Amino acid sequence: MKKILIPVDSSEFSERAVEAGKKFAKAFDCEVLLLHVVGLRVTSLRFSTSVPAAEPFDSFDTHERGYAEDMLETYKNSFGDMKDKVETKVLFGIVADEIIRTINNSDVDFVIVGSHGIGSALFRAFLGSVANKVVHHSLKPVLVVK
């Protein structure tokens, strides 16, 4: 194993995934890619008969990217002396789709994703839509951490 992908947000489940990732990275002396995907949000809809002028989402993107980079830097620093082997990446898009695209189109060997779950009988109902899609569409092995 050469590279682990850990998709993260600011939840306790991501913190658990990062903790598991630290153990794997140390045991296999491998690289880590910490990924945060800023999900698309529709804030308002405008209907017009004219073509609207392009309105860039620069301020939104800048705010979200700054927040994501700060969060990723905190996670990266938690790797201590291994932080030089940790890469961070921020993407914008549909969260599950961007994670799956990253998994299937990169050199990662293994994925660790955090999710909440409450037992096998209700596993699919409570696994979470992002983790569920990642598990079912990844071409690489996925470890789900609760």
List the helices and strands and how they pair.
Layout: E1 3-7, H1 12-28, E2 31-39, H2 58-77, E3 86-93, H3 95-104, E4 110-114, H4 123-126, H5 129-137, E5 142-145
Sketch the topology as an H/E string, one letter per element. EHEHEHEHHE
As for the CATH topology, it is Rossmann fold
Q: What's the number of domains?
A: 1
Mean pLDDT, all residues:
84
Low-confidence segments: 50-55, 118-123
Beta-strand percentage range: 15-25%
- CATH C-level class: Alpha Beta
Q: What is the oligomer described by this structure?
A: single chain
Tell the overall outline.
Answer: globular
Task: Provide the spatial order of strands within the biggest beta sheet.
Answer: 3-2-1-4-5
Please identify which CATH superfamily we are dealing with: HUPs
Task: Describe the model.
The structure is a single chain. This protein starts with a strand and ends with a strand. α3 (95-104) runs parallel beside α5 (129-137). It has helices at 12-28, 58-77, 95-104, 123-126, 129-137, and strands at residues 3-7, 31-39, 86-93, 110-114, 142-145. The model is unreliable at 50-55 and 118-123 (pLDDT under 50). The relative contact order is 0.23. The longest helix is centred in the middle third of the chain and has 20 residues, at 58-77. It is an alpha/beta fold and 146 residues long. The chain contains five helices and five strands, in the order βαβαβαβααβ.
